[in-house]
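README: folding subset

This subset contains proteins for which both the sequence and a predicted structure token string are available. Records are stored as plain text. Below is the entry for MADS-box protein (145 residues), shown exactly as it appears on disk.
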Amino acid sequence: MMQLIQRHSMQSEKSNKPGQQPLHIQSGSSNHAKISKELGDLTLELKQLMGEELQGLGMSDLMKLEKLVETGLSRVGKTKESELMEENARLKQEANQAEIGKCKKWDGARNSAESITNSHQDLAHRPDEDSDTSLKLGLPFSNGN
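--- output ---
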């Protein structure tokens, strides 16, 4: 028990000294410093990739950046090409469907015209007595005169 009290009092004395922090705060500060530095480095790298901060780059860094840009551009080109090919195929299919629909309508109209022509021809072959439009000559109409 005495040892525990002595350790506690020694720790308190150490923390009361100016310029010195307790152990758990010191480790937190060093972690914070590491994380801050890493964040700064990553921010700079991102800015360099975005083309904002290129002054500090050496030749090898610029070549790496160029390679990254070329790779990204290649991927964009392949993706765009794929999308255009798919859209082209879809539009061709729609055009074929429209053409088929147009042909069906034309065939339907032609068949309809043929049936009208055939029905007129059938009417033309009927005898006049069956026709409502034929005139029959009969006795003259007398008005009682």
